[in-house]
Amino acid sequence: MIVSSLTEFFQKRVSKAMKKQGILTSQETEYYVVNLLDYFSKAERLHKPEQGEQEALVITLGKALQSNRDEAIPLYRRVGDESLYMSGFFSQRLKRQHLSSRYYRDLGATAYETLSGLMKRKRDKVFANVFGELAEKFDYLVEVLIAIGEQHEFSASKDPADILQRWEKTQSAGSSRSLLEEGLLPLWQFDSDEGDPQTN
Question: Do 106 and 33 fall into the same domain?
């Protein structure tokens, strides 16, 4: 498939992964995720997960808490964006380095939730809704990034145990299908009428 830009490349992959996993977001939120991937495709723009990275993001969060609204917004956004990206594309590296994926997920969701509140106070309804949806669906969007990473062999693991752990956290359609392929999904997870995994 020929694409004219990285943005178009990620647009197709994000849309496909969301559809496959049954994840619905606003068009604005989907476009935000696409632009996030495009932005971090430049290696120098991302702090790779190392032993001190969790502390670095906590320091950034601390600065945001002590800053005025306009100064805090880009700081919270950095915490949210980097946490989302690393949770999706560097999940196995985090695990190997004994860094907590759950920590990043909680940190990112909290940052986005705070951003949503700040944007509401600025009367920016569009970004308030986008950041609110990113916070609410953070775990599911991590699954989207993991799926893209698996498809293109970026970083995510196809280890059945890892897939099972992800399914237990999100019960997403994508993880359900992966477990089906491995023969690990219990039969009681199926709806007898539709034959599709129930993901609540």
Answer: yes
